Amino acid sequence: MKKYFLAIIAVCLLLHAHAQSGYFTVTGKVTDAISKQPLQGASVFAQNTTLGTATDAAGNFRLTLPNGGYDLVFTFTGYQTDIHRISSTDAATANIDAAMKVKEKALEDVVITSSNEVKNGWEKYGSFFLQNFIGESESASHCTIKNKEALKFYFSKKRNRLKVLANDPVEIENNYLGYNIKYTVDSFTYEYNTQVSLYTGYPLFEEMHTTDSLQQKKWEENRANAYKGSLLHFMRSIYNKRLKEEGFEIQFLVKYNDKDTAIRLPDFYGALNYKKDDSTQTVEIWPNQNTVAIIYNKAKPEPAYLTANPDDPAGFQLSQVAFLPGQSLIIEANGYYYEQTDITTYQYMGWKKMGDMLPYDYQAP
After folding, report:
1. Which of 1, 27, 208, 331 has the most neighbouring CB atoms within 10 Å?
2. Which band of pLDDT confidence, cut at 50, 70 and 90, is reported for residue 29?
3. pTM to 2 decimal places
């Protein structure tokens, strides 16, 4: 009896240590929504991280994540992608039953009939797609899409819009940051009338491995540079109330005589209506103005950006973030925010695209 009691204590201490170690575990089961049969081999991953797994023969999965918030993504061939938002505050009840629905052919037919698929789409739009999806930065120039054949291009003359879909996750090899990325594309659109591109999807990162210590060090240096001034860096700095210390300054942009006028803010957090909820370990912000200018003064813009935007300052990185009117933004400790489509970035942050993205589990040096 004494040994049994000691064993229970040991298990309890182990569980407590795990809970306090900065990680939490998500478990669950993936099934067909109609037949209720388990789906073996379904992919389960925290989007925009290096963390994922696959279901076993009974459809069960188990995934351990660093504390913070994530979109947990479920994919399986022939089924609609399923998304569940999770957080470390859900650790006590982090058990998810994902009932996945078969893709409806009718939806694909609507897309095809309402737009015209472009023959030889990659030859015609490939470079343009890379420019607006991967980007034009130094990091982007070292990226390669390994399965171009998965991409389908549709152009609507009526809407003057290009739309790109993918049959399978887009496989991106980023030799500059040392990541292989599988990006499950929801959609990519470019509106020629407004010159605005929008892409949504679910990336899963995998770190490249090398026995070359110099190559590994170079990847780590490049990742650290990509992090500086990024949206991920900005969100984490807000959460930790370290904007000034990390090199950020924010200003409000207001229209005056049809021109954008910047208003300096003596109190960043008051202007953002910063509020931390200790029970959920989240931060809520609700800026007094919808458009916020972001200055990052610890790094200069890349030469390629200044060539394309000669009117922008060369001594610091200048970006704009547009928030949805009347909507607050919730930020988790790891920099994850929701809803992910509630803000739009312009200027320098908007110029940086998939080729410069870092996963949410990236730890800055």
Report:
1. 331
2. very high
3. 0.88
